[in-house]
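Q: Make up one entry.
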Amino acid sequence: MPTTTRSAGGIAFQIANHAFLAIAAALCLFPVLHIVAVSFSGAGPAAANAVVLWPVEFTVSSYASLFSRAPFLDAFGVSAVRVAIGVALNTALTLLMGYPLSKTRREFPGRNLYMWLLVFVMLFNAGLVPNYLLIKSLGLIDSMWALVLPSAVPIFNVILVMNFMKMLPREIEEAAFMDGASYWVCWRTLILPLSKPVIATIVLFSFVMHWNAWYDGLIYMNDNGKYPLQTYLYTVIQDRDVATIEQANDSATVNGVTLKAAQIFLAMIPILFLYPFLQKYFTKGIVLGAVKG
């Protein structure tokens, strides 16, 4: 068998490349570990900035205090409902729109017009004031629909799905058409099972988008009790939740610093839990979906 030998330059590049990636990973991981360490530390060391990557005076008092607070639990529940509705709506509409757009102009005569409209709305936005007036005129202020309807059709996800479906073998559909199947039957029984990588990709994108969104909650929700989790965390970090911070500062083991760290870490958990299950599909879905067929 032929053997390959690496040059000194190639070996040096590999070492430098691995070192760079290791440093980049450490820089990304450091803030997370610091937040976790602070959340499990006592009030004194956290207030004195004595915590780096390991808890000092280990305690779970911050989490016990946090789960006894109704505002945090209410906000967590609002975000959970938003993610459930938003991801389902995003995924369904994206798949329904991406399939016909993957067809040729002969199969779908209005395809080019729809593509032009999609690109236009992706590049140009009416702005905050018109969007707010539209949501208000529809009576959606303080409603869950104000958080999920404006982003119901993510155009980038539609383009990913469209390009992925373009690359699927045409012979599969042609064989189904010869057996009398309709486009609906082909989409449901053939295309969707073959599109698992891109479906996992858009589910992950939609989940992250809805879970991390905070600004729309601040704009469209007048009732603080209807804030999603990230909007609530924003108010806490900005020290607007004065009663919570003052109550925490009265405790010997919990203060505002440890409480904020615990809330931030709990907000990370759903994404950290979801990503490993979708990661095996993620690279294939985004690469194939981004390549024009």
About this structure: The CA atoms of residues 213 and 230 lie 6 Å apart. The chain has a mean pLDDT of 82. The two ends are 37 Å apart (CA to CA). The chain has 15 helices and no strands.
